[in-house]
Amino acid sequence: MMISLSHFLLSLRKTIFLGIVLLWSTVCSGQSSFVQAYRDFRGYLFVFENGAPRQLESQAVSSFKSKGPYVAYVTSGNNLKVYYNTEVFDLGDATNTSYEISNELLIYKRDEVLGVFDKGKTTRLTYFIQDYILTDKMVVFRDQNQGVLRTYSNGEIQDLEYTLIGALGTFAAGENTVAYTNSSNYFKIFHEGETFEIDNINPVSVSAGKNIVAYVDGSERTLKVFYNNKILTLEQITPLSFLSGDDLVAYVTDENSFKLFADGKLMKAESYKPDFYAVKDRSVLFFIDSKLQLLQNGMRYELDNFMPKSYKMSEDNIAWVDPANRLHLFSNGKSKQVTTELFTDYDLNGEILRYTTAEGTSTIYYQGKFY
Predict the structure, then answer these.
(1) Using an 8 Å Cβ cutoff, are 101 and 70 in contact?
(2) Are 209 and 246 in contact (CB under 8 A)?
(3) pTM
(4) Comparing C-alpha atoms, which of 167, 135, 132, 138 is closest to residue 152?
(5) Nearest partner of 36 among 371, 328, 367, 353, judged by Cα
(6) pLDDT tens digits for 289-328?
(7) Cβ–Cβ < 8 Å for 74, 80
(8) Which element (helix H / strand E) includes 287?
(9) Residue 296: what are its φ and ψ, rounded to 5°?
């Protein structure tokens, strides 16, 4: 059968277009966009997603939180609901219920029952919760009735350790790490599905991040890190403080130097102690020498000349309020003063910044535009 050239080219274009659509759908199916929730002047709940608002409730809500791709809220009828991927899911009565959100998980505690909402699926973790820690990708929890430390990640519950007793003690969790001491006083680290026995003496203090755990050794009092399945000593004397992030640890030495261990390399950021510092993901925010500064992905930025009254960090984006109550945002390597008008609160989720004016109006600032 003969096929004309024009028909062949048309058919080829359709095939290429379909392939592009399918490829784009495949890429996007594994990604959830960040959202931002807000109330209008009536108290009705809206969500801002992909550059556009959408109304979720036509009655006032009693509380709400948004982070990552989720909006969790309690309706006027006292039900806990969650918005995810254009759908609203009802998680039941909100009486005696608290809830938290990370970038990938939503946890709700109803009396002694702990449940997790994970991308459309709800799982009961325990009916007798003792304590838990929520990170972006994982929940670490213990039962009241059983001496078992468990994790929930990627839709599965895994037992880490039996015979855990007593209070939390040296217990910490990062995005994909858990550091804990068992009932025999052995210090262990769980990372990417594997458990490592570190020491038979409880550490003095611990901070867990993504792919890294920093701790002060229980016998030598040195600062050590577990990184790339190895133990490295950073300081021979106990530091004044330390915090872990994604593949990094920031700390203040006993001599007040400010140092950073990132991607396997140690550097001195300053020779003296900052007024404050905070670590989130790949960002280290600190104030020193009358300057608000940021270390991020090997770069150093000066953000402001004033100590912030408050700040929020999300996915390498920083929002802060200066002493004159001006709201600023650092995103994609650039700083901007967002507004000088009076506002009562603000929230940051990814690149989406929301603030509420003194009149009760919510404004969204996203990718250089106001909504």
Answers:
(1) yes
(2) yes
(3) 0.87
(4) 138
(5) 353
(6) 999 999 999 999 999 999 999 999 999 999 999 999 999 9
(7) yes
(8) strand 283-288
(9) -155, 120
CA distance 363 to 353: 8
Identify which has the larger pLDDT, 4 or 336.
336
Instruction: Give the residue carrying structure tokens 């109550």.
Output: 325
Quick check: 14 pLDDT over 80? Answer: no
Task: Give 176's contacts (C-beta < 8 A, 6+ positions apart).
Answer: 135, 137, 138, 153, 191, 192, 210, 211
Residues 91/101, Cβ–Cβ less than 8 Å = no
Q: Are 174 and 213 in contact (CB under 8 A)?
A: yes
Mean pLDDT over the full length of the chain: 90
Q: Name the residue among 99, 171, 107, 179 with its Cα closest to residue 136.
A: 107
Please count the CA atoms within 13 angstroms of the CA of 329 that sit on its side-chain side.
24
Q: Where are the alpha helices (DSSP H) in the chain?
A: 5-29
One-letter amino acid of 114: L
Element (H, E) at 251: strand 248-252
- Say whether 15 sits in a helix, a strand or coil: helix
Placement of tokens 């009565």 in the chain: 93
At 165 the pLDDT is 52
